[in-house]
Amino acid sequence: MAAEAIETLAREDQSAIWSRQREANALRNAVKDFNPGAPDSWVFSF
């Protein structure tokens, strides 16, 4: 029972990490489309 709960929490955590990374990539791509030189000078640490 406890192992299943830990597995579920780990899966949800990984899903949240992937979702956050997708959002960061979408933001970076939107900024790059708007201003191609901007992402080179900024640090995206999401």
List the helices and strands and how they pair.
Layout: H1 2-34, H2 38-41
Features:
46 residues, mainly alpha, 80% helix, 0% strand, rod-shaped
- Please give the largest β-sheet: none
Considering DSSP H and I runs of 4 or more, what fraction of the residues is helical? over 70%
Structural class: mainly alpha
Quaternary state of the chains: single chain
Global morphology? rod-shaped
Series of H and E elements = HH
Number of domains: 1
Arithmetic mean pLDDT: 84
Secondary structure tally: strands: 0
Report how far the terminal alpha carbons are from each other. 33 Å
What percent of residues are in strands? under 5%
Radius of gyration: 16 Å
Total number of helices: 2
Summarize the structure.
This protein is mainly alpha-helical and 46 residues long. The protein is built from 2 helices and no strands. The chain has helices spanning 2-34, 38-41.
Structure, explained:
With 46 residues, this protein is mainly alpha-helical. The protein has one domain (2-41). It is 80% helix and 0% strand. The protein has two helices and no strands. It has helices spanning 2-34, 38-41. The longest helix is centred in the middle third of the chain and has 33 residues, at 2-34. The protein starts with a helix and ends in a 5-residue tail after the last helix. The mean pLDDT is 84.
